[in-house]
Amino acid sequence: MLLKTITQRTCFAIATFTIATLSACSSSSPLVLDHDVLIDVAEITQNPESYIGKTVLVRNDVIQTLGERGLILDKDRAFSGDAILVIDMSLIPLKLTTKNTPELLVSGKVGKFTSASFQERYNLSLESNLYNKYENQPVIIADSLISSPDPEDLTQSPEAYYNKPLAIKGELEDLKSYGVFELDEEQAFGGEDLIVVQPRPRIELNEEQTVIVYGTLRPFVAVELEQNYNLGWDLSVQQQLEAEYSQEPVLVADKIIPLNK
Predict the structure, then answer these.
(1) Which domains, ranges and CATH numbers included, belong to the chain?
(2) What's the N-to-C CA distance of the chain in angstroms?
């Protein structure tokens, strides 16, 4: 399967998804995946031969980092037995802090990990004491990693995420005709929904549809959003939105991917 390099780490397109590039992505070169849905890490670890050599998209918690380019993904920040090794081969390795280890959206090719061959092939220096336990286990050779916290994480602690590239998965609610909707965490109760603004051109979306929204978080200031993005809001719309959402965190979408469940 052919992988095409993308000029921006967060701006990649998936051929089997319906994708809208809304503002910031300058490259339309596709990243071709072998599956048109998010893959559960457990599916890969339990059936590795079905995925070896294929390109996948996964979303899981980072539970451990291994040196500069290695990390372990698992569910709910706990070793559940379905952990998988990821080697970050993106142009600029993703830096994670111990204070904040969110979920990541990772795309890459699945392989079988052997330390010696990986060090030679990718010109890496891997500490054997960190990687020995993963010998001959499935690995994702990642070419794209992006922070993917839950919508509630952004509404509760927006300052930690302002002006950073994000990919947020959630369910659509309260769709408005002028490109504003709310993103709700699936199977969660009581959390505050995240406001999303979709600049023009806009794709058609449906209530309760599950999507991944790529974009940047910022405070909601209607006049600034209208000035900086192609929104088409008249003064009455700006005033209405300002009254409802003023200074709340808003995700300005660069791209929206409807997911097939």
Answers:
(1) 39-146 (2.40.50.200), 151-258 (2.40.50.140)
(2) 23
